[in-house]
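User: I'm writing a tutorial on reading structure tokens. Could you give me a worked example: one chain, its sequence, then its tokens, then a sentence or two explaining what the tokens reveal?
Assistant: Sure. Here is the example chain.
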Amino acid sequence: MKVLVLMGSPRRNGNTSILCDEFIRGAMESGHETEKINIVDLKVNGCLGCNGCQRNGGTCVQKDDMAGLYDKIMAADVVVLASPIYYYTWTAQMKAVIDRTYALLGRMQNKKFYMISACGAPSEEWNQTMLASFRQYLGCYDETVTEGGYVFGLDTMDAGSVRDKASMEQAYQLGRAI
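And here are its predicted structure tokens:
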């Protein structure tokens, strides 16, 4: 399977990225092809809400790096949305990508989505807004777009602090289980 990891943290080597690398290690050990994209390196504008993509076969009117992401998302069997939690939800960079996938509405099928997120919260109950957002996003697509699972790197405010957390093994095992 083709696994696409969209990493939405402004911290290139932060805790969310470290968890992604463990997920990828597990997926590769299970024989899957993986690609990790740091979306902070791309120019992705926010959605204009113009519905142009819905009128012209899924092509967004904006000319930015999202065009290449559309192709990669459509080619992937598995898509991982990875973002630290900023004020109970996605980073601005990840939210822009999520909003722009509106262009794929009616076309995205047969994909399994995962979520990986590091956060400062001490327990998962603080992250219910993020989890609900992830699940509601998937609900926008047909029943063949499903949730594969999620990992929260809890209590990880300091750089690299995720390394001694149970979430490292959880991310690895989630990747292996694809």
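What the tokens reveal: The chain has six helices and five strands. The mean pLDDT is 96.
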